[in-house]
Amino acid sequence: MTVLAHRVTASDSNDQLTRDALAVLQPGFEGTTAPAWLLRRVGEGLTAVGLFGRNIASPEQLAALTAQLRAERDDVLVAIDEEGGDVTRLEARGGSSFPGNLALGAVDDTALTRDVARELGRRLAECGVNLNWAPSADVNSDPDNPVIGVRSFGADTHLAARHTAAYVEGLQAAGVAACTKHFPGHGDTNVDSHHALPRIDVDLDTLVARELVPFKAAIAAGTKAVMSAHILVPALDPTRPATLSPQILTGLLRKELGYEGLIVTDGMEMNAIAGTYGIERGSVLAIAAGADAICVGGGLADEATVLRLRDALVAAVREGTIPAERLADAAARVRALAAWTRQARAAAAPGAPQEGSAPGIGLAAARRAVVVSGTAAPVSAAPYVATLAPVANIAVGDETPWGVAAELAALVPGTGSGVFPEGATATDILTAAGGRTVVAVVRDAHRHPWMAQALDALVAARPDTVVVEMGVPQAAPRGALYIATHGASRVCGAAAAEIIARA
């Protein structure tokens, strides 16, 4: 399709077609206050705004920002990618107060998952956020998955399904719409869709029995939104990724699964789409396929992007690529969700924080998720924490701190620490540690050969080494004490530090 070069003028900026095109966009922006261009577009029909870590400095600032947006439109959807655990925007600068999905799955207490999600939702609602691009319903069946991992409740389909449902129920009980992702399931991939187009080569029976079960549970639980995945699933559509596939979005999700809520795309600037189709053509194809909302703004966060996408959609309708009723239907679903969030905001009781502020339900959950093997004598002197740090995936980001060094130093004064990237060796760590006990902190050691080699050499040279795995605990336990936290959030680090300090 050729996108017509069209620029809407002031005279037609409020026509219904243009308002519908704006309504289906979920753009981002730079800064901690809403820029004038964004407020202007909200006034013209933009119904949703996406927030990222760069937009958030404190709960008070976030509440002021959302109030600024609502002064333009009371029912504006303010969306955020706040999974808790490793993927946090609300606490991007300090680490999350909640464990992520894998930790909750490891505990396997759906009441706990529901309560954690409700408390997370309460905090979001308190700040004026009413749409959360969470939970991840992906079944992490491929342990080498570079982008899902601890964001999944686990590799067991039915465990993932019951916790996905509990999370949806808890979040929406707080008046925040859940957006279950990444349909039809991103767990069985070993490619990150931020960089390239992943492919899932399994048969239809496997998809139905594994990938789709958690999404069915989310739909039954009443999830208000579902996010599509930028993945190719040949058993469903051999040519187009799910986000652009009528067979997957309309045929499977709408017709076969009976889902009536909002369908949101994953970020359109991700290379799986932008690198192949471009964001304008990709957005047009997504709406035509059955998507209702276009998520963009993680990397492209300016007015020009909004105008490019708005104009591409308007042009596509005018030239017949998208039926006018399809865009109108998508915009209507966005507005319906906006109306629900306004009603939910009024109906949801404010509620008190779960389990008080100290320790809080997040730390309590993280403590329950820790699995320990091996024995070790109490740390008799300040240890040395060596964090073997892989490159963070884009979903997690590299701005959020992780590990146990700060938490352990608070419990054992004098604790030393260092960060060791790929290429570092056990000799480097031992030289830095001197005679101190080494606490080696890793993330997905099974996916990083350099990390596994360094650990093996460390344990061979110093059998008293403590190992803390903060990713998927796929590798065999090693070290005098081995602690699997099932996630790298701040509270997971605090739970591990408590064990080390009293070991």
Short overview:
The protein is α/β, with parallel strands linked by helices and 503 residues long. The protein has helices spanning 16-23, 36-44, 59-72, 101-107, 110-126, 157-173, 204-220, 246-256, 271-274, 279-289, 303-318, 324-347, 360-369, 405-411, 426-433, 449-461, 490-502; strands spanning 25-26, 48-51, 77-80, 131-132, 177-183, 225-228, 262-264, 294-295, 371-374, 384-389, 416-421, 438-442, 466-469, 481-484. Helices cover 41% and strands 11% of the residues.
List the helices and strands and how they pair.
Layout lengths: L15 H8 L1 E2 L9 H9 L3 E4 L7 H14 L4 E4 L20 H7 L2 H17 L4 E2 L24 H17 L3 E7 L20 H17 L4 E4 L17 H11 L5 E3 L6 H4 L4 H11 L4 E2 L7 H16 L5 H24 L12 H10 L1 E4 L9 E6 L15 H7 L4 E6 L4 H8 L4 E5 L6 H13 L4 E4 L11 E4 L5 H13 L1
Parallel strand pairs: 1-8, 2-3, 3-4, 4-5, 5-6, 6-7, 10-11, 10-12, 12-13, 13-14
Antiparallel strand pairs: 9-14
Helix pairs in contact: 1-11, 1-12, 4-13, 5-6, 6-7, 10-11, 13-17, 14-17, 15-16
Question: Would you kindly provide a written description of the structure presented here, covering whatever features stand out?
Answer:
With 503 residues, the chain is an alpha/beta fold. The chain has 17 helices and 14 strands. The strands form three sheets. Strands 2-3-4-5-6-7 form a six-stranded parallel sheet. Strands 9-14-13-12-10-11 form a six-stranded mixed sheet, with helices on both faces. Strands 1-8 form a two-stranded parallel ribbon. Strand 4 (131-132), helix 6 (157-173) and strand 5 (177-183) form a beta-alpha-beta unit. Helix 1 packs across helix 11 and helix 6 (157-173) packs parallel to helix 7. The protein is globular and about 75 Å long. Residues 1-13 have low confidence and may be disordered.
